[in-house]
Design a protein that fits this description.
globular; eight-stranded mixed β-sheet; single chain; 10 helices; FAD/NAD(P)-binding domain; D-Amino Acid Oxidase, Chain A, domain 2; alpha+beta; 19 strands; binds flavin-adenine dinucleotide; 400 residues
Length: 400
């Protein structure tokens, strides 16, 4: 779009939210619920239609955001860890740790909540460019038929890993990514979530086999390279090969950010959710953290709109709030990743053996939290052997 086009002094919308994923829809819902005029633009014809995600969400998120439990297709209480040298450890949580939803249903439900709160949802509109002036923001939305210009007082960029649009607003996205690769298939006798670790399956990270409902399962992994090759190794493993029907299974690969960009706010602009790196650096799960980031964005924007001050200074409380909440976790996760990056299969198998001991299992059971990993990592850093392993990550993170 031309940069010298004049912006109306009284735009039609208070906030234009780009992207109806969990972050965008929650932000739109909270702002519309506080009486602001919110336009929610989504490129897909149905929110969540193209999400590449396992759909695992911790119990806490359901409580904090009153998420629709009717969408849960399975619940995770126990996890079987499979590692090198046939090492196997079962973690029995003894309580529901997390739930699994189908993203196309979940995202549609959140977008509907935003609409019910008063936001206007426009699907099938891809925001292709935009600009800012002292008076407001403009975006160009491209549909099947035409390009339409929308004007607002502020913009929220909640576009997941589709980061190109950030450049129109002089914002940077995350710089580091892993690959998330996954397929949906039929599976028999897969009753528990299984996690695969070790150099053959998921070097420096982990793979998963997650049962959904009605005999469906998602198999995938996150990795920094050779994603397809490692997925094939998991699919061919003696544990899974005979249980899966891979006919018609389509493999999907997507980037997942690891760590946040330097700045996620500016005059009239907030970057929220995965686009802001609000993703766990341990498990790469981003639904809950993105929603927490979106909640902070809505609180900041609500106050700023009321004061009619949408300057970077006024919006900086968003940055402070979300980083205060999530950054300690992101840093702890980075250290864990650094440690896992270098661990040999022999050491990993030994760690699993130690982890399976009753005393350590009790500690993990008591301190483990699906969403907040730092307290457990802090506790484990005092353990004679596990602590040594974690310190390797701290050293490498400090050197990096
Ligand atoms: C294989 C895999 C498995 C995963 N499993 C899990 C899991 O089990 N649990 C978990 O918590 N996280 C998981 N994640 C991560 C999770 O999917 C993301 O962190 C989460 O979706 C981020 O939410 P968001 O709202 O920020 O972005 P998104 O969910 O990506 O939503 C962004 C929305 O913006 C729209 N959009 C993008 N660009 C434009 C544009 N220019 N104009 C208009 N609309 C636009 C997109 O269509 C999309 O609907 C997984 C990721 C991968 C790759």
């Amino acid at each position: 779009m031309s940069s010298n086009r004049s912006l109306a002094t009284d735009p039609e919308w208070d906030v234009i939210v780009v992207g109806a994923g969990p972050a965008g829809s929650l932000c739109a819902e909270h702002l519309a619920g506080r009486g602001h005029r919110i336009l929610l633009l989504e490129r897909d014809h149905r929110p969540g239609a193209c999400a590449n995600c396992t759909g695992i969400i911790g119990e806490e998120a359901f409580e904090v955001f009153d998420l629709p439990r009717g969408l849960v297709v399975n619940t995770i209480s126990d996890v079987v860890f499979r590692g090198p040298y046939r090492r196997e450890v079962t973690f029995e949580g003894g309580r529901p740790l997390a739930h699994i939803v189908r993203r196309f249903e979940f995202d549609a439900a959140l977008a509907e909540r935003a609409e019910q709160a008063g936001a206007e949802l426009r699907t099938g509109v891809r925001v292709a460019g935009g600009s800012r002036s002292p008076h407001g923001v403009e975006v160009d939305g491209v549909t099947d038929k035409r390009t339409e210009t929308f004007r607002g007082r502020a913009i929220v960029l909640a576009v997941g890993y589709h980061l190109a649009i950030l450049r129109s607003f002089d914002m940077d996205g995350p710089r580091e990514f892993v690959q998330g690769v996954q397929l949906l298939c039929r599976a028999k006798d897969l009753h528990q979530t299984e996690v695969y670790v070790g150099s053959k399956w998921a070097p420096g990270s982990f793979g998963w086999a997650v049962p959904l409902d009605q005999g469906w399962a998602k198999i995938g992994l996150t990795t920094s390279g050779k994603a397809r090759q490692h997925l094939d190794a998991i699919l061919a493993s003696e544990h899974l090969a005979h249980r899966l029907d891979l006919s018609d299974a389509r493999v999907r690969l997507s980037p997942i950010p690891v760590g946040a960009p330097g700045r996620t706010h500016d005059d009239r602009v907030l970057v929220v959710g995965e686009a802001a790196g609000q993703v766990k650096t341990t498990s790469n799960g981003g639904i809950y953290y993105s929603m927490l980031g979106a909640r902070e964005a809505a609180a900041t924007l609500d106050a700023a709109l009321r004061r009619d001050d949408l300057s970077a200074a006024a919006l900086s409380s968003y940055e402070t709030a979300w980083r205060g909440l999530l950054e300690p976790e992101l840093q702890a996760g980075q250290q864990l990743r650094e440690a896992f990056d270098t661990i040999s299969d022999a050491k990993l198998a030994a760690l699993m053996w130690i982890g399976g001991m009753e005393s350590l299992m009790d500690l993990i059971r008591n301190r483990a939290d699906f969403d907040w990993h730092r307290p457990l990592l802090d506790e484990l850093s005092g353990h004679r052997v596990v602590g040594q392993f974690l310190k390797m990550g701290t050293r490498r993170a400090a050197e990096a």
